[in-house]
Queue: 3 jobs
Job 1
Amino acid sequence: MASSHSGEIHLFVGPMFAGKTTSLLRRIKSDVDNGRNVAMLKSSKDNRYAIDSVVSHDGVKFPCWALPDLMSFKVKYGHEAYQKLDVIGIDEAQFFEDLYEFCCKAADEDGKIVVVAGLDGDYLRRSFGSVLHIIPIADTVTKLTARCEMCGKRAFFTLRKTNEKQTELIGGADLYMPVCRHHYVNGQVVAEATKSVLESQKI
Ligand SMILES: [Zn+2]
């Protein structure tokens, strides 16, 4: 049965180090201060900081549920407790394959406010996971920016510092840096050149 009050979906995207988790935590904390019932979810794939907390790069923490998928949350949390929830925060949303399905159900049918933070693009600037799929069902979409590590200008992209090729390579400042368009293009050229030198040496 549909909930009496209607839900909402808010999305924060951007490159790494753009303050997505910080924005999500700020929003969730103000909901807690306003007496709303809140649950925070993140992917169990990302255990860089802590398994039971969402932690931003600047060290702010909030307790959370680390899950392999979103649709199992209702059962794990308990049906009754779920009914009482007002707000659901989702961090690192690019790792959830069932993001669209979950957000649709939570906002449309269950009347929840869903606040989502995730990478819009991977290190090759390709759409990452299902994050972009929820734009058509979202109330608001905010693209945050970081500071380019090379020149200090606004950074829109995430550059991988190593030659690893898998899309889901989880890491922080050791593996990735935020860059502006100019330094993204330059950085990719350098990465490709390094790769071809390494490959030519193998032969
Ligand atoms: Zn730059």
Note: The mean pLDDT is 90.
Job 2
Amino acid sequence: MSIDYSEKIPNNVDLAGDRKLQRALESWQPNFLNWWKTMGPAVPTEDVYLRTAVAVGREGWAHFDHVAMEEYRWGVFLAERNADRRIAFGEQKGEPVWQQVPGEYRADLQRLIVIQGDTEPASVEQQRRLGETAPSLYDLRNLFQVNVEEGRHLWAMVYLLHAFFGRNGRDEAEALLQRNSGDLDSPRILGAFNEETPDWLSFFMFTYFTDRDGKYQLGTLKESAFDPLSRTCEFMLKEESHHMFVGTTGVDRVVTRAAELTREFDSEDIAPHGGIPLDVIQKYINFHYSVSLDLFGSEQSTNAANYFTAGLKGRWQEERRKDDHVLTENAAHIDLIRDGVLTQDEVPALLALNSDLRTEYIADCENGLKRWNRVLENAGLDRRLYLPHLGFNRGVGLFSDHHVTPKGDIVGPDVWEAHKDRWLPTEADKTHVRSLMKPVYEPGKIASWIAPPTKGINDKPFEYEYVHFS
Ligand SMILES: [Fe+2]
Ligand SMILES: [Fe+2]
């Protein structure tokens, strides 16, 4: 199932066979391009060495070449259809999946698609100015790759809205371009997507922790009984893994450089030597991890239970779970604070699905910490990085009324106030990090605060001219 690039909108959904839908998307396209020009990357470039999706099959789906970004072929690609696919969970488990939206789930499905769709352009907006300060051409290229693919993910959601939700869906597709990250009048839907991404350490933390939340949300939608949504998300997850890679290796390289400087000067105070101190890296981890945990919502949720029972949204890797996939009889444990101590409550498993997804996410996040600590260990340093406690710095859910230290101690507001500068980035930390953000655009050169990557993109060397400026 290859993709037709002769079309105005590349696609593998036979757009040409549905003139009405094709016209609707073609009339949305100029609005998208207008949004890209005004809210997309602020640095003018001639062309960028980018990956474009050209097929969805196992045997290679990407093509790499220098392309002018505004001519990037954003398109609509769904993973291949499995004609035998059946609903894997909920009260309709075992029945064939849906190719159309059942009337009774229309509003809920549309809401889920709009919320997912809203995050995609939001991150492009948040990262808009980062191109002005990239530490290398390689990094600049990776930023733009993430940006064009988030743009394509917007296309993916807009296709579903146009194809399956009629007039309402078209209105929602317009609104996705009208809300903007941080806009006071019409902000993006989720809080974390209204924060700006002011520097490259924040960008790497965002792609590690916040994009990874996106991966887990997409994973639940990939299980959906609404087959076009499932197939869309399956393909998006393929692209998303490069975004995780950018985050994981980005933090790797900042830690590597910090370790080098710490050894060279025999001091953790490497700020005067152009590095980012390890304790500042830890504070950035604390911040980005805790705000990303908030994206999973309340630990107990009847909405999540209803979505599951209806078959709209499953669990992470639903089909590998060893239970009845209906969960009406099962129990789960959720963490909370009662009478000033950390404890667990047993609750119906159906109500604890947000907590279940968050648990999967946390286990995945730990992998990065292992990698980064291996870097420190290999450098002969004793310091280790860690994920702060689940209850630390939370704004959503059962911990949001409490103060919990990164180590998991419950403290009062006075202790929190007195110590929070040791746990979260201070203005001075942010100012230092921002002071290091100077563009390095000579091929093969890299900024002082980060190590070069161990290899380039698509077998090209690090020195390759990934970006040409206009
Ligand atoms: Fe995305
Ligand atoms: Fe992403």
Note: Residues 15-469 form a domain with the Ribonucleotide Reductase, subunit A fold (CATH 1.10.620.20).
Job 3
Amino acid sequence: MSNAVRASGLAPRALGLTVVLSLILSALPAALADGHPWQEGVWYEIFVRSFNDSDGDGVGDLQGVIRKLPYLSELGVSGIWLMPIHPSPSYHGYDVTDYTDINPDYGTLDDMKELLAAAHALGIRVIMDFVPNHSSSQHPWFLASAAGDPAYRDYYVWHSAPPDWRGTRGGSAWHPSPTGAAEHYLGLFSPGMPDLNHRNPQVVEEFKQIARFWLELGVDGFRVDAIQHMIESDSGQISNTPETYEWVREFQAFMHEEAPHAFLVGETWTEMPAIIRYHESAQLDMSFDYPLWRVLLAAIQGRSAADLGDVVAQAEQLYPEDAVRGTFISNHDQTRPATLLSFPRRDEQRMKLAAGLLLTLPGTPFLYYGDEIGMPDGPGSFDVEKRTPMRWTEPTAGGLFGFTTGAPWTNPGEVPAGVSVEAQQADPGSVWHAYRRLIALRGALPALHSGDFTLLDAGARAVLAAQRSYADERVLLLANLSTRAVPVNLAALGVQPDAVTVVHAPLEADEAAPLPLGAELELGALSLLVLELR
Ligand SMILES: [Ca+2]
Ligand SMILES: [Ca+2]
């Protein structure tokens, strides 16, 4: 398999895709009849720099990821999303200087081919971050554009008297030319990230070629960074413009033609109506469900399921039926649940409940590396603290923790004992084991990964009650978000107690809860039950 995938990277386009596709079809699990294979599993976001260092230089790398694929398989994930792995002047990589190469800190194209082959052999798909909205200000395209090279001049947006547009962080969206010329360029995120001009068909074509390059290498799709900011309107609207929807529609059509097995997931960091339009108007394969992220964590913090239930029910109604939502409770831009939910002290039960909701509600879940062990944010308050090195072992006397044999590239901060893969795997009651049980349960019950959702009224604000069903399979979800036990009457939810065939308590070390239940059951504090019904 390794050799075949390696060869396909250099083969003519059609041949390469055929080879890669047939390998994928043989190695990766098939989907239920009405779904896509990529929507049924659980995905895992990896910041390569912080995941696992294979050579002791203190920086995580692709060989480090390859060595941890069996770990991911054991956890049960069926796909990984690699944050940017291209050459870049920044630590995070969202300002790319070469879109078809690998950051030398992380390895080589051969390492990437090896990673793809090894992941596919384990049934793990691989998607990459794709950053078409902006490049690095060090990208040769931008340097040529700034210097006035006619071939690249229109790759970016220049203005001699720029209008008063605000960028994503509130300051001016325009920055003075690095050449000292009396003109400004557009950079919505920062001066180091000039926006590419996707009104220029040559730029659009460049990104199709880049996507083709990685698809031929064997990647299974892309997470599209800053998707809502692709094209600004003349009036200064910087998000969700008609031109941006059109760009997404065209790029999706290209992707489907080029690689039917692959998919796009967009960083749709916006409100529900705008996200829905990416499905309705642009046929986006998958959006990220930012509304659910907000309401799910707020529900756990506020100990009330009311808004959470309403938002999920509303989403079920309003999204087109074939729209796929990528759900998450954390990513590289957000405070980790272990930090957010551990006030004033570490609260693993809350972390498990957040995971339990994520993995039983509708959508395709994306986990963020480290959340499965309840890893908190680092010591400061910048974005880098959400991206600190993975804790593989309990700290040694020398302060090592399995990430590197050298000095980590960033200060990992103090972390309490027990927050490591080693310690969490040794404790059946840990956050890690709850994730593992939840992922397995979700995989075993099509109602959980592909079923519909009907909100029920349990008569208590702290309790989320819902039925999920797929074909003739029915499950009842019961989650108690409060810190007190709450009685729940099954008959009042329309469920006869003798209809319950199996009770799962996946947050608990002893996951098989006792049968039979009476008409009234007591739902423990911060607990989740999944009841299979006949
Ligand atoms: Ca390294
Ligand atoms: Ca833009």
Note: The mean pLDDT is 93.
